[in-house]
Specification:
Blueprint (H helix, E strand, L loop, with lengths): L1 E4 L5 E4 L2 H15 L1 H15 L6 H7 L6
Antiparallel strand pairs: 1-2
């Protein structure tokens, strides 16, 4: 990041557009109560070992080619 001083003596921060867009997306996710609840629930299930294998998921979704 770079700091630039403009004529009004206010400081500005310059960051790459990709980083800015990523930050905006993060803010949107953090502000979405429903999405955050789903993320917290999923992390809890992961900690508790409530997971299924990739192969079982494919079967459950009907994506298993076997």
């Amino acid at each position: 990041m770079h700091t630039t001083t403009i004529k009004s003596d206010q400081e500005m921060v310059t960051i790459p557009l990709k980083k800015y867009l990523s930050m905006q997306e993060t803010i949107e996710v953090l502000q979405d109560r429903h999405l955050m609840r789903d993320i917290q629930r999923a992390r809890k299930e992961l900690r508790e070992g409530k997971t299924i294998s990739w192969d079982d998921l494919k079967k459950e979704l009907g994506l298993d080619e076997n």
